[in-house]
C-alpha cells in the first residue's frame, strides 16, 4: 500500500466516523490497525524483518494503541549498530513516503543504548518510551529497548521523582485545570489524559497501582473510565476540527456532545468536569502514594517507621496521611466518615486512599436525624476555610459525600449558565462555604452561616427557581442534620432569600424608606437572618468569580443592611440557665465536687464541677478539663451560696473520661497552687507534634464550649495523669472579635444581669484551654464573672460573659478586649486567589474590635 493510499483510507475512515458508522473507540482502533498494516508492509519491503537488526517501535498514540484522527505518528527506527549507509537507506525509505503524503511524523533513529541514554536524560522522553510497542522487524531488539527503559525507570525513580513531579506541575501551570476551564486542554491540563499516562508510569515503577482505590460506583467510576471518556471527546474534537486540537472550543461543544450522544454543550461540560476531577483526584493520590513508597538508601533505611499519632476517636495520622486507628470498626461507626474529614481539614493532611476505600466499603449510613456529634464534625469541616476543599473533594470522588448529602448529585459537576461563574455549581458551593468559614466571627450563628453557604444553590439544575426549590431542600437537609425546628426554618429562609440583599441593593433606591422596609418585612424583622444574609452575600460573590465583589457592591449592601437594622428590634440576649435541685444541693454543701454523667451521645459526657468561689476558679476548672483531653461543646458558669457551679458538656479525645475523683484532686491541687494550669497548657501546645489548621473538632449539638477543646495525640499520660502530646489549633480561619452590650440600655435585658453588669461576647476559633486562658485574662483585669454561657458551634466559639467590671470605662473595655483577643488563635494567612501573595482570611483585624 502506497502512502497516498494510506491517506485516502484515513479520509474514508473519518467519513465513516462522521456518518456514525464508527464510534470514537472503533475509529481509533481501525486507525491503529491501518497504520500498523502499512508500517509492517513497508518495513518488509525495506528488509525490516525478524533477525534483520532493525525494528520499528511506536510510542505516543500508536504505541498506546489509541491513535486519533490527526495525531502524529511517533516512531523509532531501532537498529543493532548497523552500517550508516544501510541505516540511511532504510530510514529514507520509511520516512519519505510519509512526508510526501503530508502525514504528521515525529521520528528518530537510534540504537538501544542511545535510546536508553535519551530516556535517562529527558523525563518527557522517558515517559514516552514507557509506552513503546513493537510494530515490525526484530522483536528481540524492541524487547531489549522496552525492558531496558522500564528497568532503568524503576532503578532511577528515587532520584528522578522530584523532576517527574515538577514536570507535571509545569504542565498544569501552562494548561490549567480542566474541570474549571471554559476551553479545557484535554491532553495536558490538570486531570487530563497525560495525568492518567503518568499514573501508568508510576505503576511501572511499582510505586502505585494506578487506580487510586476508586470504586466502580464512585463519581467518574475510576480513572480508566474517566480516561476513556476524555479520549472519546478528544477523538471527536479532532474529527470535527479537521486537524489536531487539544482544547474544546465553545463553538465545537454542541457538535461533540451530539456525536457522542451526551447532549448539548452543558452536558458535555459536565462530563468533562466529572472525568477530569476523577483523574485529578487519582493523580493526587498516585503522586502522594508514590512519594511515600520511594525506596530508601543509606542511613534512611535505618530510620524507624513512622509512628501513628491519634487525632480523634478512631482517627490517626500515619506517614503524613489521615488513616483509621487499628481498633476502628467502620461498620459500627457511621460518624467515622465525618471525623476523618474534619481531622483532615484541621490538620491539612490528606486522607489516605485506603481509608476512603474502607469507609466506602463498610461505613453505614448515618441515622436520621444525625447524632449531635456528627453535626459538629460537619461544622468543624465547613468552618476550616479553604482547608475543607480537599477533604470534601476526596469524599465526593469516592462516593462518600453523596451519602451524606444525597441532594448533591443534582449539582455535581453542573456547569454554570452564566460566564461570570468560575466554578461548577458544586464547587461554587464548597468555595462559598470556604469563604464563609473565614467570616464566622461576624455572625452570632456561625453554624447556620456555613451550612447555608454549603446549600444555598442546591436547588439549581432542577428546572425551577433554584431559590424556591432550594428552600424546600434546606428543610429536608436541616431535618436530616438534626437541627432544631426554628433553626431549620432559619436555614430555609437563608436559602430562599440569599439573593435578596444583592438584588435590592443594586436595583433599588436605597434613599427610599420603602426599600429598607421591604427588606425588613421580607425577613420578618429577624436580625439574625439579616446578618447571616449579609455575610452570605459576600461569601457567595467572592466564590463566583473575579470582580464580582468589590467596594461598590459592598458599600451598597452594607448601607442597605444598616437601614434595615434600624427598623428591626434588638435581638434577644443570652441568659443564665436555672440551677437544678441537685446542683443547688452541691453548692450549699460548700465542698469540692466533680461529677461525670453520660448524655445522649455515645462519646459525650456532662462534667459538673462545684467548689467554693474565689478569683481564678473558672480558669482552673476549664484548665483541668483541657489537660485531661476533654473537649467541651457547651458550658454554663454560675454561682450559688458562695460556691461556683459550673457544668460542661465534653467529649474525650479517646475512650472515656478520667475518673471523677482524679479530676477532683487535680482541681484542688490547681486551686491550692500546686499545679500551674496555664503553664501546662502552654507546654502541651509547644510539645505538640502535629500543627493543626483551624479548630479542634468538638462534639456537636447544642452549643459547644471553648474551655477544653483540646485533645491529645497520644493515649499515654504523664506522671500527673495528664495526656501527652496534645494537638493544638495553632491557626484560626476567622479573626477573633469582642462585642460589648450594655444591659441598662438594652430593651431585652430583663433577667440577663443586674445594674452595672455588662455582657462581653467573644467570637473566635478554638484552641487548647481557651476558656481557661480567657477567664484568666478577665480575672486579671479585676472583672467578676457573674455567669457565662460557653458555646462552640462546630469550630467557632461564641462565648457570653456577664461581667461586673471594677473599672467600667471605654479604655478598660478596650484593654480587656485586646488582652482577650491576644490569647485567641490568630487567623492564618492564606494564598491570594490572584497569586499576589498571602493575605488574611477575612474579617476585622485586632485593631478593629467592635466596642459598643
UniProtKB/TrEMBL annotation:
The keyword Nucleotide-binding does not apply. Residues 425-526 form the HD domain. It catalyses: [protein-PII]-uridylyl-L-tyrosine + H2O = [protein-PII]-L-tyrosine + UMP + H(+); [protein-PII]-L-tyrosine + UTP = [protein-PII]-uridylyl-L-tyrosine + diphosphate. SMART domains: HDc (SM00471). Keywords: Hydrolase, Magnesium, Multifunctional enzyme, Nucleotidyltransferase, Repeat, Transferase. Its cofactor is Mg(2+). Residues 606-682, 759-831 form the ACT domain. GO terms for biological process: regulation of nitrogen utilization. Residues 841-852 have a biased composition (Polar residues). GO terms for molecular function: [protein-PII] uridylyltransferase activity; phosphoric diester hydrolase activity. Residues 824-852 are annotated as: Disordered. Residues 1-310 are annotated as: Uridylyltransferase. InterPro entries: ACT-like_dom_sf, ACT_dom, HD/PDEase_dom, HD_domain, NT_sf, PII_UdlTrfase/GS_AdlTrfase, UTase/UR. Its EC number is 2.7.7.59, 3.1.4.-. Uridylyltransferase (UTase) activity is inhibited by glutamine, while glutamine activates uridylyl-removing (UR) activity. Modifies, by uridylylation and deuridylylation, the PII regulatory proteins (GlnB and homologs), in response to the nitrogen status of the cell that GlnD senses through the glutamine level. Under low glutamine levels, catalyzes the conversion of the PII proteins and UTP to PII-UMP and PPi, while under higher glutamine levels, GlnD hydrolyzes PII-UMP to PII and UMP (deuridylylation). Thus, controls uridylylation state and activity of the PII proteins, and plays an important role in the regulation of nitrogen metabolism. Belongs to the GlnD family. NCBIfam families: PRK03381.1 (NF002895), UTase_glnD (TIGR01693). HAMAP family: PII_uridylyl_transf. Has four distinct domains: an N-terminal nucleotidyltransferase (NT) domain responsible for UTase activity, a central HD domain that encodes UR activity, and two C-terminal ACT domains that seem to have a role in glutamine sensing. This is Bifunctional uridylyltransferase/uridylyl-removing enzyme. It comes from Gordonia insulae. The lineage of its organism: Bacteria, Bacillati, Actinomycetota, Actinomycetes, Mycobacteriales.
Amino acid at each position: 500500500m502506497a502512502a497516498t493510499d494510506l491517506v485516502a483510507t484515513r479520509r474514508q475512515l473519518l467519513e465513516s466516523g462522521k456518518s456514525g458508522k464508527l464510534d470514537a473507540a472503533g475509529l481509533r482502533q481501525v486507525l491503529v490497525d491501518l497504520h500498523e498494516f502499512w508500517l509492517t508492509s513497508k518495513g518488509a519491503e525495506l528488509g525490516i524483518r525478524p533477525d534483520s537488526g532493525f525494528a520499528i517501535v511506536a510510542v505516543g498514540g500508536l504505541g498506546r494503541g489509541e491513535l486519533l484522527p490527526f495525531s502524529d505518528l511517533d516512531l523509532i527506527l531501532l537498529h543493532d549498530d548497523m552500517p550508516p549507509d544501510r541505516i540511511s537507506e532504510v530510514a529514507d525509505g520509511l520516512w519519505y513516503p510519509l512526508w510526501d503524503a503530508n502525514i504528521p511524523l515525529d521520528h528518530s533513529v537510534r540504537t538501544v543504548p542511545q535510546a536508553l541514554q535519551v530516556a535517562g536524560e529527558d523525563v518527557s522522553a522517558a515517559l514516552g518510551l514507557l509506552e513503546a510497542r513493537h510494530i515490525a522487524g526484530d522483536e528481540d531488539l524492541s524487547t531489549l529497548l522496552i525492558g531496558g527503559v522500564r528497568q532503568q525507570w524503576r532503578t532511577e525513580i528515587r532520584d528522578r521523582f522530584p523532576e517527574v513531579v515538577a514536570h507535571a506541575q509545569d504542565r498544569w501551570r501552562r494548561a490549567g485545570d480542566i474541570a474549571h476551564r471554559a476551553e479545557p486542554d484535554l491532553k495536558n491540563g490538570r486531570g487530563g489524559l497525560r495525568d492518567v499516562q503518568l499514573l501508568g508510569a508510576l505503576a511501572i515503577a511499582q510505586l502505585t497501582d494506578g487506580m487510586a482505590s476508586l470504586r466502580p460506583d464512585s463519581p467518574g467510576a475510576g480513572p480508566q473510565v474517566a480516561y476513556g471518556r476524555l479520549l472519546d471527546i478528544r477523538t471527536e474534537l479532532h474529527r470535527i476540527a479537521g486537524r489536531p486540537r487539544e482544547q474544546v472550543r465553545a463553538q465545537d461543544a454542541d457538535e461533540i456532545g451530539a456525536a457522542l450522544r451526551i447532549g448539548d454543550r452543558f452536558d458535555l461540560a459536565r462530563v468533562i468536569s466529572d472525568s477530569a476531577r476523577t483523574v485529578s483526584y487519582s493523580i493526587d493520590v498516585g503522586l502522594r502514594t508514590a512519594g511515600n513508597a520511594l525506596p530508601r538508601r543509606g542511613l534512611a533505611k535505618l530510620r524507624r517507621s513512622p509512628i501513628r499519632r491519634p487525632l480523634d476517636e478512631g482517627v490517626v495520622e500515619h506517614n503524613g496521611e489521615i488513616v483509621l486507628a487499628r481498633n476502628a470498626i467502620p461498620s459500627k461507626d457511621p460518624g467515622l466518615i465525618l471525623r476523618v474529614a474534619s481531622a483532615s481539614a484541621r490538620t491539612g493532611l490528606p486522607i489516605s486512599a485506603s481509608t476512603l476505600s474502607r469507609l466506602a466499603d463498610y461505613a453505614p449510613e448515618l441515622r436520621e436525624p444525625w447524632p449531635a456529634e456528627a453535626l459538629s464534625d460537619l461544622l468543624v469541616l465547613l468552618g476550616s476555610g479553604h482547608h475543607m476543599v480537599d477533604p470534601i473533594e476526596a469524599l465526593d470522588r469516592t462516593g462518600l459525600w453523596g451519602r451524606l448529602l444525597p441532594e448533591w448529585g443534582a449539582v455535581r459537576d453542573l456547569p454554570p449558565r452564566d460566564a461570570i461563574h468560575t466554578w461548577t455549581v458544586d464547587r461554587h458551593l464548597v468555595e462559598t462555604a470556604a469563604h464563609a468559614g473565614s467570616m464566622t466571627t461576624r455572625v452570632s450563628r456561625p453554624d447556620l452561616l456555613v451550612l447555608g453557604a454549603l446549600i444555598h444553590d442546591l436547588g439549581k439544575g432542577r428546572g425551577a427557581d433554584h431559590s424556591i426549590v432550594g428552600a424546600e431542600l434546606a428543610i429536608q437537609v436541616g431535618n436530616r442534620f438534626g437541627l432544631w425546628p426554628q433553626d431549620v426554618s432559619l436555614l430555609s429562609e437563608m436559602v430562599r432569600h440569599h439573593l435578596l440583599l444583592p438584588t435590592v441593593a443594586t436595583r433599588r433606591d436605597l434613599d427610599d424608606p420603602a426599600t429598607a422596609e421591604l427588606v425588613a418585612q421580607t425577613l420578618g424583622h429577624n436580625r439574625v437572618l439579616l446578618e447571616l444574609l449579609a455575610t452570605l452575600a459576600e461569601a457567595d460573590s467572592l466564590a463566583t468569580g473575579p470582580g464580582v465583589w468589590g467596594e461598590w457592591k459592598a458599600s451598597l449592601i452594607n448601607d442597605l443592611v444598616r437601614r434595615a437594622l434600624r427598623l428591626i428590634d434588638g435581638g434577644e440576649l443570652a441568659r443564665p440557665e436555672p440551677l437544678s435541685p441537685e446542683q443547688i444541693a452541691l453548692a450549699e454543701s460548700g465542698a469540692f465536687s466533680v461529677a461525670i454523667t453520660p448524655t445522649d451521645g455515645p462519646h459525650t459526657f456532662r462534667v459538673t464541677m462545684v467548689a467554693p468561689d474565689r478569683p481564678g476558679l473558672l480558669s482552673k476548672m476549664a484548665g483541668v478539663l483541657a489537660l485531661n483531653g476533654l473537649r467541651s461543646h457547651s458550658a454554663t458558669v454560675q454561682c450559688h451560696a458562695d460556691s461556683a457551679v459550673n457544668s460542661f458538656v465534653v467529649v474525650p479525645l479517646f475512650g472515656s473520661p478520667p475518673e471523677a475523683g482524679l479530676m477532683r484532686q487535680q482541681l484542688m491541687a490547681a486551686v491550692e497552687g500546686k499545679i500551674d494550669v496555664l503553664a501546662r497548657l502552654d507546654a502541651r501546645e509547644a510539645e505538640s507534634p502535629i500543627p493543626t489548621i483551624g479548630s479542634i473538632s468538638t462534639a456537636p449539638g447544642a452549643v459547644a464550649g471553648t474551655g477544653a477543646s483540646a485533645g491529645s495525640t497520644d493515649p499515654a499520660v504523664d506522671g500527673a495523669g495528664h495526656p501527652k502530646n496534645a494537638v493544638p489549633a495553632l491557626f484560626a480561619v476567622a479573626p477573633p472579635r469582642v462585642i460589648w452590650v450594655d444591659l441598662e440600655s438594652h430593651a431585652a435585658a430583663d433577667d440577663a444581669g443586674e445594674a452595672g453588669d455588662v455582657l462581653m461576647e467573644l467570637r473566635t476559633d478554638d484552641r487548647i484551654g481557651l476558656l481557661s486562658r480567657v477567664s484568666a485574662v478577665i480575672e486579671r483585669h479585676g472583672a467578676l464573672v457573674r455567669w457565662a454561657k460557653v458555646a462552640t458551634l462546630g469550630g467557632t466559639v461564641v462565648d457570653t460573659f456577664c461581667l461586673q467590671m471594677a473599672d467600667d470605662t471605654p479604655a478598660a473595655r478596650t484593654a480587656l478586649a485586646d488582652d482577650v483577643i491576644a490569647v485567641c488563635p490568630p487567623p492564618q494567612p492564606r494564598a491570594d486567589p490572584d497569586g499576589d501573595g498571602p493575605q488574611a482570611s477575612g474579617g476585622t483585624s485586632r485593631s478593629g474590635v467592635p466596642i459598643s
